[in-house]
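Below is just one:
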Amino acid sequence: RVVAFANAVVPRVLRRRMPAETRITATPDGCRVGDAPIRFDTGDALARLTDATADLLVAQSFLDLVPPADALDAFADALAPGGLAYAPLTFDGVTVLQPSHPADDRVRAAYHDAIDAADGRTSRAGRRLLDVLRERPAETLLAVGASDWIVRPVDGEYRADEQYFLACILSFIADAVPDATDWLATRRQQLAAGDLTYVAHGYDLLWRA
């Protein structure tokens, strides 16, 4: 359903946002922007990266979900020689919700422990990726910087889909820490009232294959 939605909506959005002379053509699995193809697909993301022709690969908020070394192997297979990989918003082990709550430290530690317990995942993916890149002389790290998600209400309201996004974050924490019922009830009340702020610390990393 997500791919079908993207196929239907993305070409229309691009036609509104791109310069009028840019040719946007819908295709069965995505669209073309001028001569550049855009394809939407489902499946194992790392298994799809095999053709060694990409000049740029972007993996946003992704490398805390997969083993970083496996991801770098797959990226190297996908990129043409000298191609670039960019991993913005790579989570790195800091989760903050405001206002403060007495159970914050316990819930946060249990949430991160649950991420670390999942096969191949790490809650400190940003720094782990730095270590992996350092161990791989074939890749050249070009730039790295701190990059945080900060989602906050403005005048008691959230913009765009931010309230839905925060509800998803709370659901992830609920799945990982099922005994945090009082903490979750308070956080959901704060979200409904437009009082909840969320911060997740991450890294932006750029390297050359």
User: Anything to note?
Assistant: The longest strand covers residues 79-98.
